[in-house]
Amino acid sequence: MELLKHLTECNSPSGREDSVRAVIAAQAQKYCDEIYTDTLGNLIARKGSGGKKIVLCAHMDEIGVVVTYRDDKGFLRFAPVGGLDKKNLVNRRVIFPDGVQGVIGIEHDAEKNEISKMYIDTGCAGNVQPGDMACFTGEFCESGSIVISKALDNRAGCYVLLEAMKRLENLSCEAYFVFTVQEEVGLRGAKTACFGIDADYAVAVDVTDTGDTPDCAPMSVSMGSGAAVKVMDRSVICHSEVRNRLISLAAENNIPYQLEIMTEGGTDAGAIHTTGTGVKTGGISIPTRYIHSNSEMADKNDIKAAADLLEKFIVSFS
Description:
Blueprint: H1 2-9, H2 18-28, E1 34-37, E2 43-47, E3 53-59, E4 64-70, E5 76-81, E6 93-95, E7 101-106, E8 118-121, E9 133-136, E10 141-143, E11 146-149, H3 152-167, E12 174-180, H4 188-197, E13 201-208, E14 227-232, H5 240-252, E15 257-261, H6 269-272, E16 280-289, E17 296-299, H7 300-315
Parallel strand pairs: 3-12, 3-13, 13-16, 14-15
Antiparallel strand pairs: 1-2, 2-12, 4-5, 4-9, 6-7, 6-9, 7-8, 10-11, 11-17, 14-16, 16-17
Helix pairs in contact: 1-3, 3-7, 5-7
């Protein structure tokens, strides 16, 4: 899990993916035939040639905040970059690219957890200015089969793509491993990257919520029960051919899996399947608790199952 740890330690909010892209590129170039970065910043690594074009997609960016105002005492007002859980923001720490850290506070008379009533307190350290972005802090730790960290959404998905890529040899299809930008702010990178590839099939790899914690919303996904084959979310109804192929491959290869219907949120699959004249698109998800927090939790066995299933999916076209 050392690579996953390294990926999560990168501070790369939407639109500022440079540091995590450099780490991924250094790994991917060892295993691919071609690698490039497109205009928007997506990293695309191709392996194999001829036959069907298959896109395997995972977003690189993470949620964060952007400074909108700095007062004369050095307190910073901010706006969200991606979807923030407002009720759990107060007292969380953020870190800026220059290493300056701050704590999110809230006005004492605020009646609601409104971002307009919150501020970042850096103790007047550094020279943070409006337009600067910060990520949430949250160190990577392992406890048995469990990993806990900020940014498992979606560095876990990036890790799965890299794991599958390095296993593949002598492909007679074209596999495009696409590490996208700006997913958290509207699935933007996937739309442009996949337009340029004109793929036949695609699978987006991302995290998904679980329904296995006390008093949570009912959902048929549990951490530790295998990779989740996506049926639908708010951005996509997965193509039946892709969904059924994933299910069959999991069953044939004894890969633990479960079915996922996510009623809130979406993934890059939502942008990919309507690109160009359309792409047959599905999803493999990693069950993850406490998404969009600084303590996201996943099971190593589910991550492995996702990588195993993605590898079998690609090979099935070769």
